[in-house]
Specification:
TIM Barrel, binds flavin mononucleotide, eight-stranded parallel beta barrel, alpha/beta, two-stranded antiparallel ribbon
Length: about 400
């Protein structure tokens, strides 16, 4: 291993867990779970990432135990996994067993699609989608979603009732118990990308005048209550990681916070509720979040700010080992391998973040982490890799 990359191979303790290195497989939806059930192929896919020395695996997003959690993925796909029912839970137990057998650690990413769910699809097509204020998002936002989907989602629907909110929070807690019972090592929560939790955080989709809306701090209440309910369900030890993002699929240019002070209003209530790690989703890790800040803070990325503001662990993600971001690789058919790890390690060595999320590079190549350790060349990423479980 080169001295330069050695810091990425320092172990890290998260509560009772010891990660052997800082490389984390980022959550990636794969659509390979017929009927919501992960099979032996999915278990093998995750096992190979553990064999390849990945420090921690976060699974594809998994629907929580709520009837409106999942629709189709958005563009006519389905086969999204869920985390309830004997068959799916048996499938997940097998995934965990395979990963543990290869010496790995694994968290599932709990998911409720909220407004992004394509209405009338998924396991319960008759159930209405859950939207904080009945809104999908803005018309005319910068999005890569197909126009017919956007048009069909723009019609306002009924805002979530107090009862809806209670039921969704209870669904997260039930699913968290399943996570523990399946033997997972921790819990990841999808709080970004314009899905349910994020649309409570975002003023464009949360225009509520009750206790679930208002200021940034008040809009954080739903996320905090979800975390609190999960924490109560699994006890004080199990690590909880939460993903958040400025960008939304409804509008890539959206922002929850325009300054560190605004980010603090959002993240502190969620940290206090019991999050151990913030997973700050960016498309490019090497971008400063608030470049007008004085001194060394000017270069910090979103994960750096999450760490500085909350004092919790933070994970960065976005283009590690590749020359473009995920939406660009969708358009261009793939990405070239990039030697940007030096830039990554410079940030890491300054203490900006604790963990490094790796998406497409690990989707393409199960041995990516080992190759980093051995200094071997990376493969380019091809969209063909999306069609199979390598
Ligand atoms: C095929 C694919 C599926 C994804 N699915 C999810 C998901 O289920 N949950 C999530 O939070 N992010 C998802 N993402 C985003 C990744 O977790 C990651 O943040 C993104 O790909 C940037 O990392 P990369 O540049 O290393 O690929 C997905 C990305 C890809 C490429």
């Amino acid at each position: 291993m080169s001295d330069l990359l050695a810091p990425l191979f320092e172990p890290l303790q998260i509560g009772p867990l010891r990660l052997k290195n800082r490389i984390v497989m980022a959550p990636m939806t794969r659509n390979f779970c017929p009927g919501g059930v992960p099979g032996e192929d999915v278990a093998g896919y995750y096992r190979r990432r553990a064999e390849g020395e990945t420090g921690l695996i976060i699974t594809e997003a998994v629907g929580v135990d709520h009837p409106a959690a999942l629709g189709e993925a958005g563009i006519g796909e389905s086969d999204l996994p869920h985390l309830y029912g004997e068959r799916a839970l048996a499938g997940w137990r097998r995934v965990v067993e395979q990963v543990h057998g290869a010496g790995g650690l694994i968290f599932p990413q709990l998911w409720h699609q909220g407004p992004m769910r394509r209405q009338g699809t998924g396991p319960n097509p008759d159930v209405a989608s859950m939207r904080p204020s009945g809104l999908w998002g803005p018309a005319g936002g910068l999005t890569s979603s197909p126009e017919d989907y956007v048009q069909s989602q723009l019609l306002p629907t009924k805002p979530m009732s107090e009862r809806d909110i209670e039921e969704v929070i209870a669904a997260y807690a039930r699913s968290a118990v399943h996570v523990r019972d399946c033997g997972f090592d921790g819990i990841a929560i999808h709080g970004g990308h314009g899905y349910l939790i994020d649309t409570f955080l975002w003023n464009v989709t949360n225009q509520r005048s009750d206790a679930w809306g208002g200021s940034r701090r008040e809009r954080s209440r739903f996320a905090a209550e979800v975390v609190r309910a999960i924490r109560r369900a699994v006890g004080p030890e199990m690590p909880i990681l939460m993903r958040f993002s400025q960008w939304k699929q409804q509008d890539f240019k959206a922002k929850l916070a325009h300054s560190p002070a605004e980010l603090e209003e959002i993240l502190l209530p969620i940290a206090d509720a019991g999050v151990d790690v913030f997973d700050a989703s960016m498309r490019y890790f090497n971008r400063a979040e608030f470049p007008d800040q004085p001194g060394a803070d000017a270069v910090l990325n979103l994960a750096g700010w999450a760490r500085k503001i909350t004092g919790r662990l933070a994970m960065t993600v976005g283009g590690v080992g590749l020359n473009n971001g995920m939406y660009d690789s969708n358009k261009q058919g793939g990405a070239q391998a990039s030697d940007n790890l030096q830039l990554l390690v410079e940030r890491f060595a300054r203490g900006e973040f604790d963990l490094v999320g790796v998406g497409r590079s690990l989707l393409q190549d199960p041995d990516w982490a080992r190759k980093v350790r051995l200094g071997e060349a990376f493969e380019p990423f091809s969209n063909d890799a999306l069609k199979v479980l390598t």
